[in-house]
Amino acid sequence: MLKMAPSAEKMAHSEIPPALEPDGALTPVPEVSGIFGRVVDKISTVFALGFLLAMGILIFEIFMRHVFNSPTLWAHETTTFLSAIGFVFAGLYCASRDKHIRVVIIYDIAGPKLRRALDIGISIVCAISSGFFAWAGWLMVQRAAFKPDGSIHLETTGSAFNAPYPGLLKIFMLLVLIALTIQFVVLAINYVRAKPDDVRANSGAAKDND
C-alpha cells in the first residue's frame, strides 16, 4: 500500500476545513450566512433526530419480524421517508454553513479580491439554479398534491400501507429549494458587503492552518 510522505500528508489534511473547534464544539455558522443560516442550523437537530428515529423503527421491525413473526406494514416506508427528508435538508444545511462543493483549482490560487468575486458569482449562480429547481419542484407538487379539479389529494405509496409519503416529500423538497434559493441570495449579498480580506475568515470554508 502506498503511503504519503509526512509533508504531503500534512498538506493534504490542511486542505480539509475543520468540522470541529479545538474544544470539540461544532464550528459556528459563518457570518455570511446571516440570521437565515443560523435558523437553518438551529432546526437541523430535528432532522438529525429523524435518522435516530429511523434506526429505532428498523430495530423494532427486525424484532417484530424475527421474534414475533409479525412484520409491520409501515416500518420500511416510514424509515425511507425519514431518511429522505434528512438527506434533502442536508443540502440546505451545507449551504447555510457555506460547505457546498467547490472546484478549487482556480479558487485556491486566487487573491482575496478574486476570491470574493468568485464567492459572489458562485452564490448568484447557485441562487438562480435553486430558483429554477424550485419552479420545477412546484410543477412536481402540482401533480403530487392536487387532483385535476384542484382538490387536495397527496400522492401515496400505492402499497398496503399506502402512506402519503411521496406527496409530503415533494412538498418538503419544494420548501427546501425555496429556502436554498433564499440562503444563496443572502450569501451573495453578504459577500458583496464583506471586505475582500474578511471573506475567507467569515466563511465556513476557511482552511485549518496548522
Automatic annotation (TrEMBL):
InterPro entries recorded: DctQ (IPR055348), TRAP_DctQ (IPR007387)
Residue ranges of domain Tripartite ATP-independent periplasmic transporters DctQ component in the record: 55-180
One Pfam family named in its UniProt record: DctQ
Membrane topology label: Multi-pass membrane protein
Domain of life of the source: Bacteria
Compartments (UniProt record): Cell inner membrane
Chief location bin: membrane
Presence of the UniProt keyword Cell membrane in the record: yes
Alphabetical keyword list: Cell inner membrane, Cell membrane, Membrane, Transmembrane, Transmembrane helix, Transport
Transmembrane segments: 46-68, 74-96, 117-141, 171-192
Function in brief: Part of the tripartite ATP-independent periplasmic (TRAP) transport system.
Family: Belongs to the TRAP transporter small permease family.
Quaternary organization: The complex comprises the extracytoplasmic solute receptor protein and the two transmembrane proteins.
Protein name, UniProt field: TRAP transporter small permease protein
Organism for this UniProt entry: Thalassospira permensis NBRC 106175
